[in-house]
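Journal club side-thread
Mid-discussion, someone asked how the predicted structure for our own chain would compare to the paper's figures. Pasting it here so we can look after the session.
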Amino acid sequence: MGAQLHLFLNHFPVAGMILATALWIFFRNNPDNRRLVLKLFIVLAVLGLGTYLSGEPAEEVVEHLQGFSHDAIEAHEEAAVFPLVGMILLALASVAGLVLEAKRGLQKWVFPTVLVLSLLTVAMVLRTAKLGGEIRHTELLQKTEN
């Protein structure tokens, strides 16, 4: 069950972060949509935590199967900490933005802070996803010739 849960959950942070970042850029001037995207960043952090926590049980399943590289699993596991921290920081900034906007109106720091955190987190999530894909999809390791 651990591997299945991890494989199910891991797509949400990847696709969700890309989508939420694009929505953040396009909806920055619409207060209702802006608040919706901030809430989406919070949900993605929860899903990211679930993805991270399900990684160890997934490792327990696949590390004993033939054809899996322990080094690839370890590289993916080590990389996974960074997007998790990014998503947590993004969720905290989102909560702060929501609370402060409700009390004092839109704060000027919210858009650039969330944008920078989301772009960095997207990059980290994509790198971690690539490393995770290399565990099973060895074709990702092939170098292409021009």
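Post-session note: Residues 70-104 form the longest helix (35 residues).
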